[in-house]
Amino acid sequence: MDPPGLAEVQSLVDSLMSFLETRESSTQVSNPDTVLPAALLQLSLREEKQYLQGEFRELGEVLHFTEGRLVVKSVPSAPLLNLDSSVCAADGLLLGVVDDVLGSVEHPHYSIEAYHRLPDGCTVFYPVETAKYLQNISRKPGTDASGQRDEEAAVSSDSDGEPGPVPRSFQILKRPPASLD
Fold first, then answer.
1. CA quadruple 61, 62, 64, 67: dihedral sign
2. Per-residue model confidence as pLDDT tens digits over 65-92
3. Nearest to 40, CA basis, from 60, 25, 22, 18
4. Phi-psi region of 161 (alpha: psi -120 to 50; beta: other; left: phi over 0)
5. Angle at alpha carbon of residue 43, lines to 36 and 118, rounded to 5°
6. C-alpha to C-alpha distance for 54 and 6, rounded to whole angstroms
7. Which three-class secondary structure state does DSSP give residue 164?
8. Tens-digit pLDDT profile for residues 23-69
9. Other beta carbons less than 10 A from residue 124's beta carbon
10. Rounded distance between C-alpha atoms, residue 144 and residue 90, angstroms
11. Which residue ranges form the domains of the chain, and what is each CATH number?
12. pTM across the whole model
């Protein structure tokens, strides 16, 4: 699909302005989920289209598009991608780059600086050869993205070697101490 010409873009802007004026002039409160004209949803955020080549693997599903960003929920089998990793469609169309990694290491969500708008529910992919992976992050407890002081949480063991409760360094009181009364 070729990018829209100037006349088509002007027509879309005019239809949006007309839509907004109609909405503002109505005395009734309209539904905030009113769908914009379908032509506006097809506007690309980047005029030229770039296609990646090579092997692609599924990264996840688009949850939402907002303010030029795609929010993608990764599939469990996807590796952790680093910032500036490319994200593409199944045909190799470059959709954008990873802008932020959100959530847990086990189930990350990605904020993608989008070059093209996608509807919710679309599957996105990453190029295997050129992706930037977060290899230093372990999916085990006690690690974080900083790579500093990566230690397992303290666990004590009893006489048979089984993990037991961690000894506490404080005392649990049933009522406040006398100094707070």
1. positive
2. 988 899 999 999 888 898 999 999 999 9
3. 18
4. left
5. 80
6. 34
7. strand
8. 665 544 445 555 555 555 555 566 678 888 889 999 999 999 988 89
9. 22
10. 32
11. 56-127 (2.40.10.230)
12. 0.54
